[in-house]
């Protein structure tokens, strides 16, 4: 596991999540940030800050990225979402094209 | 894509680390050392919420570390002891 293969996602409250680039690419929005040439300064340092997304939601999103990759490779588990975060999670998912 | 991942937490930082149940704790520490610039020897991993210190030579499966598990990372201090577990919880409002 190399540092270059990871990205750091930072929540509104400044909590940091270091995840595989491959997992982050589940999000079309992050994929665009990481792959479009020279357009986002953050991506050169491999970190993206989300001032609109709180820590609990951002962690859930990261868990979803990994679940999504596991599911795609044939593992059929359920993804559990606590009812109280559903609305905010949907808004964040919409923003991230996930 | 590996079979599982664990969430390694220290202070306000979480590392998502992909792994297989057969991998040892030492192998996990070696993966972490690439990310945090701390040698495996200066890391201690603690399974949460139980608080059990994980042993280097044993596998994840041996110590009941499952997919999506939270594992606390503590580092060796100057006095050679390991620091206490510190995971900051977000203070969100819904």
UniProtKB/TrEMBL annotation, chain A:
The keyword Ion transport does not apply. It is found in: Nucleus. Residues 6-66 form the SKP1 component POZ domain. The keyword Chloroplast does not apply. It comes from the Eukaryota. Keywords: Nucleus. Transmembrane segments: none annotated. SMART domains: Skp1. Pathway: Protein modification; protein ubiquitination. Its main location: nucleus. Belongs to the SKP1 family. PANTHER family: ELONGIN-C. This is Elongin-C. It comes from Solanum bulbocastanum.
UniProtKB/TrEMBL annotation, chain B:
InterPro entries: Ubiquitin-like_dom, Ubiquitin-like_domsf. Pfam families: ubiquitin (PF00240). PROSITE patterns: UBIQUITIN_2 (PS50053). Residues 4-80 form the Ubiquitin-like domain. SMART domains: UBQ. This is Ubiquitin-like domain-containing protein.
């Amino acid at each position: 596991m190399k540092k270059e293969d990871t990205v750091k996602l930072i929540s509104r409250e400044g909590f940091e999540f270091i995840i595989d680039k491959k997992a982050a690419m589940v999000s079309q929005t992050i994929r665009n940030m990481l792959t479009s040439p020279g357009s986002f300064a953050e991506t050169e340092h491999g970190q993206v800050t989300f001032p609109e997304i709180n820590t609990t939601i951002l962690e859930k999103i990261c868990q979803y990225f990994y679940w999504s990759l596991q599911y795609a490779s044939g593992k059929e588990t359920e993804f559990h979402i606590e009812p109280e975060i559903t609305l905010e999670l949907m808004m964040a998912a919409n923003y991230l094209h996930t | 894509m590996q079979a599982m991942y664990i969430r390694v937490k220290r202070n306000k930082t979480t590392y998502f680390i992909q792994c297989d149940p057969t991998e040892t704790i030492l192998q996990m520490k070696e993966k972490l050392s690439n990310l945090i610039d701390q040698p495996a020897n200066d890391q201690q991993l603690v399974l949460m919420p139980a608080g059990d210190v994980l042993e280097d030579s044993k596998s994840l499966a041996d110590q009941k570390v499952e997919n999506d598990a939270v594992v606390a990372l503590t580092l060796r201090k100057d006095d050679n002891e390991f620091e206490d577990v510190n995971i900051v919880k977000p203070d969100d409002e819904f």
